[in-house]
Amino acid sequence: MPTHPARPAAARGSATLVALIVAVSSFMQNLDGAIINTSLPLMARSFGVSSVALSLGITAYMLAAAAVSPLAHWLSRRFGTRTVLVGAVLLFTAASVGCGLARGLPSFVLARIAQGAGGALMVPVGLAVVMRHTPPSEMLRITAYTVWPALLAPVIGPVLGGLITETIGWRWNFWLNLPVGLLGAAAMLRVVPQERDPGRHPLDLTGLVLCALGLTCLLAGFQRSAAGGAERDVALGLIAVGLLGGWAALRHLRRHPFPLLSLGPLSRPSMRYASLYPGGLFRAVFSSAPLLLPLLFQLGFGLSPAAAGGWVLVYFCGNIGIKPATTPILRRFGFRNAMLADGMLVILSPAMLAIVTPHTPKPLLAALLLFAGAVRSMQLTAITTLAFADVPGPERGAASNLVSMLQQAFSAAGVAAAAFSLSLFQGMLHDATVTLPELHAAFWTAAGLCLMGTLGVVWMPQTLGREVSGHGT
């Protein structure tokens, strides 16, 4: 039979280009969320409000994203993937400009709501496009491009945000999204395929309300759970309502003939292991690192924000430095073996950070941070790729929506658990503020959660994801 060598190469090049474009838009969204915390004091001063009041902008973004994200798959099927993806990027970009132009808290919160709505659609729709057109043999390589925004943005965001705020003003943290967003939208118009569902099923409004209610209440409860007194009671109530709404949503989605979200992908072992347990638990622990590390260096070691940012960048270098080796390792040993070995190292990394002190030699501290960043990156790449390993092409749109929603929930839970543990240990030790002992205890807690995650890897089948990794074939 005649061969066409140019065709596979073109397909690989197209998939790579789409993945890079989607990764850039995802990085823009992740970076925006990471840098705003460093600008809060100056923003609050310019608006004439307190920093606590201005945190409403962060909450508004998170809740808007949670409410809109269940719609991503249905919108892309109804209006087309390219239309929705380009529209989401343009909405996010326009809202970013609005954030920079805001003169008061109300206008800023409205712009953040629009930002959250756009950001909620970018990641799941973009990921669905990438995964739908990526053959199993290329999935490891392509997934590597989609993972780096989650690795880079939370680490470099605070450093970059602080630098921009101190030099040219906090508004430029938002305005810099304008050229990136316009270039990204133009590239998507040229590269991203337009796909839609000819069936055009009606919107499952009940499913939308239940999914949005469950996710927003869970995230809001997680965010406020570290507070004390009556506010913690409110947070626990929101979490309870969120769990109840989630249960009702699952019950409804299983019975509806045309559900808003298909739960079919969760029947695939790779999706369950990667997105729920142990993958979800690992993701929750990893999401706490951008919170705990700056606190360790500033409150525990007494360093300045700039010096603390420098040490966090060392951790970031470990995240990136291991990337060229992740694909060969997974191909050589397979998902289960690689994740089990790396899981043991992941346990070790927070345990080592739980014993460092201001007197730890700097070369040793740098080596520990590089090691912790490298093993985190390896495990995050593995669980992200594994999620789609056994999911057939037609189901990957729904799968990407489920993955995105679960990532939001586990990431918020991880940050909340870290903040709650600090508050708990602070009360147990009767300290007025968080100090080094509380931070050490939080890292020991993280090590214990990593142990629980690694035990879950033990139960994973040896053959899981073999078609993607090629291990043993």
- Assign the structural class, choosing from mainly alpha, mainly beta, alpha/beta, alpha+beta, or little secondary structure: mainly alpha
Annotated CATH architecture of the largest domain: Up-down Bundle
Number of strands: 0
Strand content: under 5%
What is the mean predicted local confidence, pLDDT? Answer: 85
Overall shape: globular
Under CATH, the topology of the largest domain can be stated as: Growth Hormone, Chain: A
Distance between the termini: 25 Å
Number of domains: 3
The first-level CATH class of the largest domain is given as Mainly Alpha
Question: Can you put this structure into words, describing what you see?
Answer:
It is a single chain. The protein is mostly helical and 473 residues long. It is 79% helix and 0% strand. The chain has 20 helices and no strands. It has helices spanning 6-47, 51-54, 56-68, 72-79, 81-101, 105-132, 139-167, 172-175, 177-191, 205-224, 230-255, 269-275, 279-287, 289-300, 305-321, 323-353, 362-386, 396-429, 436-458, 466-469. α7 (139-167) runs antiparallel to α15 (305-321) and α18 packs antiparallel against α19 (436-458). It is globular, with a radius of gyration of 22 Å. The two termini are 25 Å apart. The model is unreliable at 1-13 (pLDDT under 50).
Keywords summarizing the entry:
473 residues, mainly alpha, Growth Hormone, Chain: A, 20 helices, globular, disordered N terminus
Q: What's the arrangement of secondary structure elements?
A:
Elements: H1 6-47, H2 51-54, H3 56-68, H4 72-79, H5 81-101, H6 105-132, H7 139-167, H8 172-175, H9 177-191, H10 205-224, H11 230-255, H12 269-275, H13 279-287, H14 289-300, H15 305-321, H16 323-353, H17 362-386, H18 396-429, H19 436-458, H20 466-469
